[in-house]
Amino acid sequence: MRRLKVLISAYACNPLATEASYPGEAILGWNLVKQISKRHDIWVFTRVYNRDAIEEEINKGNISNANFIYVDFPRPFSLLLKNFIGFRLYYLFWQMKTYFVAKQLQARLKFDLFHQITFNNDWMPSFIGAFLNLPFIWGPVGGGQKTPPSLLIELGLKGFIDEIIRENGQSFWRHNPLRNRCVKRASAILVCNKDTRRKLSCPDKKIHFFPVNGILPEDLIPEEELSSLVGETLLRNDFSVIYAGRLDPIKGLGLAVEAFALFIKKYPDSRFEIIGEGAEELRLRKLAYMLGVESKIDFISWLSRKELFARIRRADTFLFPSFRDGGGAVVVEAMASAKPVICLDTAGPAFHIRDEWGIKIAPKNSLYVIQEIEKSLEKLYLDKDLRIRMGWAGRKRAEEFYLWDKLGERLQEIYEEVL
Q1: pLDDT-derived band of residue 21, with 50, 70 and 90 as boundaries?
Q2: How far is the C-alpha of 24 from the C-alpha of 29, rounded, in Å?
Q3: In the chain, helix, strand, coil percent, each to 5?
Q4: What is the pLDDT of residue 20?
Q5: Is residue 140 reached through a cis peptide bond, with omega within 30 degrees of 0 on the bond before it?
Q6: Where are the domains of the chain?
Q7: CATH class held by domain 217-401
């Protein structure tokens, strides 16, 4: 395929992936931009906030064939970024502004393709995609996932109200003519979970399942290190469970703590590490105390990426009972670390996990989830060989499917199909 001129919108695109850069989206944006630049000449719209980190990478020679166009509004507009609704308005205005710049660039440069990479939800339209007369690739797109109704009670009153507002707001946007124009105009829509696919009324031939999460080669546990850890596993009698991520109600950690409290009664040589920070921490600590398992659960603040991977690799299983993660990057990282994953059969984690390398639990109701987490932990505790087989299978899947270079190759195939 000849080198194309590709116009890209990547509001979040930052190699450092700081909290202010929206880290999950920033990692996705930066790595896909790098992959596309290996094969094509690209022009990328992104935030001014990302400029310093991007320019440093350019100066180091870590990316080429890439032109970055930094778009933002005067400082007073930044007040909109203080809350969820304000941010969505800001992003809408940002897209409008980039459209007019894109129109001028198109008149001069004659692009072959437009690709909107970040931010993408199935209910949030792309102005450039809707109106610029170019083949349009949209995604990876999420947003269709929602908390299972049977588990809404776990969010508390405020969380329940927030979810209702969220779902009604999304429903409004899904009936917006601009959003539906995007769905109609898109030559290909990259979708990161089945929940989102169900929200898109379009032919299957437009849809390409494509993750929002990828890994670097150094994220894969080396085979020699894995062999050593397997040997240690066979000799040890203790058992370690780990979670990493935000401590928010939608992560389902209350159910995880209750399940672990049941499990620990049978297998007291076990521990549960909860890594992360968030509004749920105090409630979870109180719950652990009430259940009498506070001495068996370690709450650990955010760690560096290197330290996090080291802890995951030393654990026996990764527990991620999130209700509605669109992607779930840490699930892929656990697979790359050769750890069997226990998750709910919803959204992104359900997309990543198969029976060969994990256990998915139907989100029927709170009691059912607690009981099934306990059973899953017991199953893995009692069968070391199963843990080892699942770990190897997950690592193989991560290497074959989730390396950014592999995702770049898949994206190139989609470009060829579209053109």
Answers
A1: low
A2: 9
A3: 55, 15, 30
A4: 66
A5: yes
A6: 5-214+404-418, 217-401
A7: alpha beta
